[in-house]
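Hi all, posting the design record for the shared folder.

TITLE: backbone redesign
STEP: 1 of 1
STRUCTURE INPUT:
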């Protein structure tokens, strides 16, 4: 009994999966969530936080230890002598160990500028990942609408097969009573075999498309998943392509680099403290080990650097101009592509109107051909030709319909909607 219940649960579970519905928007969301590149944004954010911590460490005191033992060929000596005073010469072997503490007081805002530069660099890298993932939407469209079209063709071929199987039964009866020749039945059977072959090809094509969609989305789909046809598309260009955001971020990155250059040659003020133990210590005339210390301020300022800063700024200005030309080029290409898709949409709409008229005429022709075949006026081959023309017209109509949906979906992607 338990096995039976378990089997029923499994059966209904499979049935439920088979009826799962998938939308184009869900595919986009799955790609944005599961594509390996999507994980990069969190990694880059963690990297940005760590780099900010590293740069902040430069504000803390730096402590270093130094030790030295040396032997020198000569030492400083007093060039005169005094009565009753003995001055011992310095030892040629000398020893010193020091502990140095340096504290940054002022550096012109270099650390702050470097932190801002790192932050803009990370944002640019994150946006690059967003751009690459966004561009995958075009591939998702190809796979999704390719599956939609193959499913439509599959349904039409199945309908054609059912129709011909019914006609085959009628012809078999007619052959049995000698009303028609056996060749009429064979023509229909050959076409049914041909349809089965086409259905097999469609199944393999669907398997390939499903696999590609699974690789992009990181999701496993049931082969009989129902694909929903999009019914609403935005026509107004209210969105912003992520590439345009990237260009703005790259421009901000250049500006942040300019600020770093401005602070690089600013004066640097540090406080220092040195404590040590050595022989000799600070008193060079004392040949004994002593402790000592020294404290004070240290100022470093490059007064002349041969216009290096000016040239570096000029380089960055050229970088900003390059980014601007890339942005303008992108916008020109974007407008060109949108214009092409507008014409494509208009053309397909006109084709769809003609398709409906052709289908109506072909249906009338098939009904007439069916009556003529029953009366022996035409052969089954003639009837089959008209049925094939009808279903080709229906396939053309479905193809144009899916192409229209694909064109509108691509238009949205190019617009950034």
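Okay, here is what came back for every position:
SEQUENCE:
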């Amino acid at each position: 009994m338990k096995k039976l219940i378990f089997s029923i649960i499994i059966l209904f579970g499979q049935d439920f999966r088979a009826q799962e519905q998938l939308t184009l928007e869900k595919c986009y969301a799955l790609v944005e969530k599961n594509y390996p590149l999507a994980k990069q944004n969190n990694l880059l954010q963690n990297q940005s936080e760590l780099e900010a911590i590293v740069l902040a460490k430069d504000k803390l005191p730096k402590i270093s230890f130094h030790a030295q033992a040396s032997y020198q060929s000569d030492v400083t000596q007093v060039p005169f002598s005094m009565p009753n005073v003995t001055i011992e010469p310095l030892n040629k072997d000398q020893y010193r160990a020091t502990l140095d503490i340096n504290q940054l007081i002022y550096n012109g805002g270099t650390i702050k500028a470097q932190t801002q530069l790192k932050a803009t660099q990370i944002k640019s890298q994150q946006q690059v990942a967003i751009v690459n993932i966004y561009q995958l939407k075009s591939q998702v469209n190809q796979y999704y609408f390719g599956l939609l079209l193959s499913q439509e063709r599959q349904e039409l071929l199945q309908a054609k097969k059912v129709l011909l199987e019914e006609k085959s039964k009628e012809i078999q009866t007619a052959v049995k009573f000698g009303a028609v020749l056996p060749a009429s039945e064979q023509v229909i059977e050959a076409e049914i075999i041909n349809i089965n072959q086409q259905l097999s090809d469609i199944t393999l094509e669907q398997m390939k498309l499903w696999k590609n969609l699974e690789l992009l989305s990181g999701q496993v789909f049931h082969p009989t998943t129902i694909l929903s046809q999009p019914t609403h598309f935005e026509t107004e260009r209210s969105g912003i392509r992520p590439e345009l955001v990237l260009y703005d971020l790259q421009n901000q990155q250049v500006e942040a680099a300019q600020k770093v250059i401005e602070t690089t040659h600013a004066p640097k003020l540090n406080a220092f403290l040195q404590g040590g133990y050595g022989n000799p210590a600070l008193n060079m005339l004392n040949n004994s080990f002593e402790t000592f210390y020294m404290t004070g301020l240290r100022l470093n300022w490059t007064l002349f650097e041969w216009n290096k800063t000016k040239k570096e700024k000029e380089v960055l200005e050229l970088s900003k101009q390059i980014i601007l030309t890339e942005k303008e080029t992108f916008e020109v290409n974007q407008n060109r592509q949108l214009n092409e898709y507008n014409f494509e949409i208009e053309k397909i709409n006109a084709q769809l109107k003609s398709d409906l008229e052709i289908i109506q005429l072909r249906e009338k022709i098939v009904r007439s051909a069916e009556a003529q075949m029953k009366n022996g006026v035409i052969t089954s081959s003639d009837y089959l030709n008209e049925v094939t023309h009808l279903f080709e017209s229906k396939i053309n109509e479905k193809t144009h319909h899916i192409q229209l949906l694909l064109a509108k979906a691509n238009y949205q992607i190019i617009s950034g909607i």
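COMMENT: Helices lie at 2-18, 24-34, 40-56, 110-176, 182-217, 242-264, 308-374, 380-415.
Let me know if anyone wants the other runs.
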